[in-house]
Write a structure and sequence with these properties.
Strand order of the largest sheet: 6-7-8-9-10-12-13-14
Order of helices and strands: HEEEEEEEEEEHEEEE
Structural class: mainly beta
Radius of gyration: 32 Å
Number of helices: 2
Largest sheet: 8 strands, antiparallel, barrel
CATH topology of the largest domain: Porin
Oligomer: single chain
């Protein structure tokens, strides 16, 4: 009799322990689901924002932000408007509390800029579009004249592909392409050996139109998230008639 009472008491105690354990685990699980987690947020001057965990924030140096995907994003101080925190309810995303959808930051895909000298010989106005993260397609236009040097009219349309090498906002720019050139000239222009590269199909009206090869070796500063653009470099021109080169300097806006 005594043994049976002991067994019944032990069974009741075990059941109570199980019930208490289940209740505790349920409360913990429910609390985890409703937990609000704070993440760092970087607000940009361009209006975008990036969410993650700031692992380096030293004034004047690039800010390093770790995203949910474990990728690391570098953000320049001049691109940042302010810092803050954002609260995310894990109940909304219990398996992935910090989804990539929270990262609404978009890199710059376009650039419009003015270039002094360079591909347009005297100047050019250019539009550039990113094809991939590090490759861009450029098209430009130039139209001018210097009668004093025997050049009545110059029209140039450079089309180039640029490969950007390096990390951050500073890049080495290696470019290659073709430039369509139409020139109205005088004898003094043709006598200049530096212009031999442009000699193409000459007609009786004192005009020539041709396509010449063009390259670029330059330093480029282009903020990843958009902003002011700057480039300085060397532009070689080449054709079956010869070789020439120009220094070029560009400034504009990327967005």
């Amino acid at each position: 009799m005594l043994g049976n009472n002991y067994e019944r008491g032990t069974t009741k105690m075990k059941n109570r322990i199980r019930l208490i354990t289940i209740i505790i685990l349920s409360v913990i699980s429910l609390a985890v689901c409703f937990t609000q987690v704070k993440r760092d947020v970087v607000y940009l001057k361009t209006g975008g924002k990036a969410i993650g965990e700031i692992i380096k924030k030293v004034e004047g140096e690039p800010v390093i932000l770790k995203l949910q995907s474990d990728e690391t994003m570098t953000i320049e101080w001049e691109s940042i408007k302010e810092f803050g925190e954002i609260t995310i309810d894990t109940i909304a995303h219990p398996l992935k509390p910090f989804p990539e959808a929270e990262k609404i930051l978009e890199p710059a895909h376009n650039a419009i800029y003015f270039e002094a000298l360079g591909a347009g010989i005297l100047y050019s106005i250019n539009y550039e579009r990113f094809i991939t993260k590090d490759v861009t397609l450029r098209i430009g236009y130039s139209s001018w004249s210097v009668p004093f040097f025997g050049l009545e009219s110059f029209i140039g349309v450079p089309v180039m592909v640029h490969d950007l090498i390096g990390s951050g906002n500073s890049k080495l720019d290696i470019g290659l392409g073709l430039e369509y050139v139409k020139i109205e000239y005088g004898n003094s222009f043709l006598e200049n050996a530096a212009n031999a590269v442009f000699r193409g199909s000459i007609n009786n009206s004192g005009e020539l139109s041709t396509a010449v090869g063009i390259g670029a070796i330059a330093y480029r500063y282009q903020p990843y998230f958009g902003g002011l653009y700057f480039q300085i470099g060397y532009y070689p021109f080449f054709s079956t008639n010869g070789f020439a080169g120009r220094i070029g300097m560009s400034g504009g806006l990327c967005f």
